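DATA CLASS: polypeptide
GOAL: derive structure tokens

***
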Amino acid sequence: MFADLFNWLLGAGRELAVVIISMVPLVELRGAVPLGVMAGMPEATLIPLAIFGNMIPIPFLLFFGEKILDWVCTLPPLTKFATAYKQKLLSKTDQVTKYARIGLFLFVAIPLPGTGAWSGALIATILKMPKTKALLSILAGVVTAGIIMLIASHSVIGVVNLF
């Protein structure tokens, strides 16, 4: 199913596929950059498009994220997942609160499961961080994550090509 979706997106154009995939929660830029590398996109095009796509929903999440998350927690098919996700975010707030902007930057920048721009924006809203400072920390984290994912993607492809 996911292969069909990726092929359909690539049919719409590599650039559009990268932007759309970068906007998807949980996948974000961490999925779009490897896809762009595999599709043969030049880095000078790939990274700005992935960053752009990843950042499109962030201002909306900073303003409305907590209300959206609370609303999703009330939807019967998503209640269990959304509630667990919210609890996971709340469990990570200590990591972010301790170092504020640097903590938010690191949380977004390090490509681990459950981290990223969407989660970072939701944590920032839950913690009532100033929106401009949160946006700049998230942007810096997304740029750093993009560079990390680009290096990792080329490294994996390089190792695979050895065989």
Notes: The two ends are 28 Å apart (CA to CA). The chain has a mean pLDDT of 86. Residues 131-162 form the longest helix (32 residues). The chain has eight helices and no strands.
